[in-house]
């Protein structure tokens, strides 16, 4: 008689394909077009578990599109995206590129959280409802569980007394902190941050970045970050990828990219952003 473990070993489940060294995010020959505009072409990269990668590059270089593809907010035009080794939108079957089931997509999608430049809170819901909506309706948590977690997250982002407020009564910095709490409420494996401080008054940018630094320091969440805050990028990321025209110009350790970039395009971009 085989032991249960041996028996399970003879029929690998899909999850068995995901091991410690399976990338959490993998782009394979990704292409994205908007009409005739080819925004991403033959894009290949991997993000390891717990890795924090910052995407930099000029406006229009495709950074937001990359995050929105991972979030399944945009349709892929070609290629494949894998989350923990599992196809997110399309897979190869019998030599053909076919869509994955909605069920699989939805399951993978619950592991991913995103914070947007413009907060995107639900205006008709209170702060508490914003944070508990998905844990209750997507993860199936009880209301009590979700509410308890929401209060602890509001504490963490420095808004313990705003649970019953409506987003419109909050400042931009406060709304963005709620948006971060909302994303964290799903316990995401992957957190996507798209210029989360670009719409904020300068004096509150530091508070929001400190909350994210703490998330980086205290969790193993994999992060894909788009930011113009180069100090933050340098502190929290393991890797920086410089994009231009939907292609990776260069990538490397933040120290190398920021102090000794190899490419003229990167030097020019950083010169403009850092103001020298
Ligand atoms: N919904 C859309 N419809 C048409 N074109 C789009 C859309 N979203 C982005 N684009 C185009 O894709 C390119 C990359 O945009 P984006 O990913 O937003 O760049 P970035 O975030 O680096 O500024 C730009 O040329 C932009 O005009
Ligand atoms: Mg963008």
Automatic annotation (TrEMBL):
Gene3D superfamilies: P-loop containing nucleotide triphosphate hydrolases (3.40.50.300). The gene is ehuA. PANTHER family: AMINO ACID IMPORT ATP-BINDING PROTEIN (PTHR43166), GLUTAMATE_ASPARTATE IMPORT ATP-BINDING PROTEIN GLTL (PTHR43166:SF9). InterPro entries: AAA+_ATPase, ABC_ATPase_HisP-typ, ABC_transporter-like_ATP-bd, ABC_transporter-like_CS, Ectoine_EhuA, MetN_ABC_transporter-like, P-loop_NTPase. SUPFAM superfamilies: P-loop containing nucleoside triphosphate hydrolases. Keywords: Amino-acid transport, ATP-binding, Cell membrane, Membrane, Nucleotide-binding, Transport. Residues 1-20 are annotated as: Disordered. GO terms for molecular function: ABC-type amino acid transporter activity; ATP binding; ATP hydrolysis activity. It comes from the Bacteria. This is Ectoine/hydroxyectoine ABC transporter ATP-binding protein EhuA. Residues 25-270 form the ABC transporter domain. Belongs to the ABC transporter superfamily. It is a peripheral membrane protein. One of its GO terms (cellular component) is plasma membrane. It is found in: Cell membrane. Pfam families: ABC_tran (PF00005).
